[in-house]
Amino acid sequence: MSRACRTCKIITDKNVCPICKSTDLSDDFSGLLVIMDPEGSQLAAKMKIKQEGRYALKIR
């Protein structure tokens, strides 16, 4: 089951966020943003994303 980190918004299957090590994860999220080139992406810059991955746009 995929869950999104409330802190950095990455989507993960683990119980701990692989980026910020937070355990505050939610399974209620919507929107999916896939970042493949964080340095070249304007959306990644706006969302302050520094690593490749799948990210949630909205987390409830």
Number of strands: 5
Along the chain, the helix and strand elements come as EEEEHE
Rg to the nearest angstrom? 11 Å
Describe the largest sheet: 3 strands, antiparallel
Question: What class, by secondary structure content?
Answer: mainly beta
Tally of individual domains: 1
Q: Fill in the CATH topology.
A: Rubrerythrin, domain 2
Portion of residues within helices: 10-25%
Beta-strand residue percentage = 35-45%
Mean pLDDT over the full residue set: 96
Shape: globular
Between the first and last Cα atoms, what is the distance in angstroms?
A: 16 Å
How are the strands ordered across the major sheet?
2-1-3
Q: If helices are DSSP runs of H or I spanning 4 or more residues, what is the number of helices?
A: 1
CATH top level assignment: Mainly Beta
Low-confidence stretches: none
CATH architecture: Single Sheet
Q: How would you sum up this structure, described in words?
A:
This protein is mainly β and 60 residues long. It has one domain (3-59): Rubrerythrin, domain 2. The chain is 10% helix and 35% strand. The protein has one helix and five strands. The protein has one helix at residues 42-47, and strands at residues 3-5, 11-12, 25-26, 29-35, 53-59. The strands form two sheets. It has a three-stranded antiparallel beta sheet with strand order 2-1-3, with no helix packed on it. A two-stranded antiparallel ribbon has the order 4-5. Strand 1 and strand 2 (11-12) form a beta hairpin. It is globular.
Structural topology:
Elements (H helix, E strand, L loop, with lengths): L2 E3 L5 E2 L12 E2 L2 E7 L6 H6 L5 E7 L1
Antiparallel strand pairs: 1-2, 1-3, 4-5
